């Protein structure tokens, strides 16, 4: 019997798990994929929103502003990349200026600090590459950028070190109320728990509707992106938005914390909860919209494109807290943008509510900090010499595009909740995220996975499940 079972190991589920790990509770996280950060959390804009967009008084507004403030300190405690680069919202038409001022007023009601309307030549002093059609822009200095992979992994590792269990490749099939709480049937057996946290992304409505008469309805909203080479990384300094519409905050252009340039997302409501394929139509639309903000945006330097799904609940807001007619069942549903920014605040809110319900006490030995894998690409010469002296594998470069070494890959495999696939290595070390998109480093990374996990080459996958990279051998394994 568990005290709490969290369904979903995305950024929201892992944030809840990390906060729960500070209490004397027996907690389990169930994840249908082979690793954390395999759904929406790995395919988004990587933006820490300032909090000016959501309606005052909404869950989105409250969690966004609180989450924005919390991420700054959390990035230091858990050692993941974050930068407060500020954000801009562009207005192209004189008649839309009232909407821009309304956005500023809304942000001020939400508690966003430092908002300012910028006009005239100062626009291009701040961002020389912006369109000359820009009439004014809203500047939010508290906006930021983050690495969503490393943030989610950091939360999960810290939760695990503090006693939270994780079960991967475990798909929830049914939930039923029991005398002591809930029974959860999965493809890997049954779990009994006093409380559930439903952080299942686009599937959160399915699990809520198994136990509650207050039915939720989540529509997957597909967003397509273009990621550009690091040569384009300095094109803009701030995150550049356009005035939002009913479909979201529109196509943005932003630097990433790793030095690339990102453009996207589009917004298309679809029925398929697995519909993460990109489309020619979507990418063309993205390109034309991005050029509205900056005509010379270097889309020709695109190294990859991808799509993610936002969990859009028909009520238009996050659904948070205990279901009225299903005591002990806590929702974190409809977590679309600004979900990444809000995750730390959602984790704190739900963990506190659950701890109060279960009369749980705080741990005296809670470990609040965590250290990331050393990054050779960003190490000083002194640090590099020290690492190589301790372990020569840190001097053996495997991924040339991102300067990732064997030492970093081995570290990624053997740390808490270590990598088990090429994508797991990629999210933890960036091996394969560069210009060649793993064209050169994948075979060597596979060999390291085989060696460290003591697996056959035929067992190594791109992303778990059936995504095996080799179909067979042209000679016996003893010859390898």
UniProtKB/TrEMBL annotation:
Record InterPro entries: BFD-like_2Fe2S-bd_dom (IPR007419), BFD-like_2Fe2S-bd_dom_sf (IPR041854), FAD-dep_OxRdtase (IPR006076), FAD/NAD-bd_sf (IPR036188), G3P_Oxidase/Oxidoreductase (IPR052745)
Protein name per UniProt: FAD/NAD(P)-binding oxidoreductase
Start and end residues of each BFD-like [2Fe-2S]-binding domain: 397-450
Domain FAD dependent oxidoreductase: 3-352
Entries under PANTHER family matching the protein: GLYCEROL 3-PHOSPHATE OXIDASE, GLYCEROL-3-PHOSPHATE DEHYDROGENASE
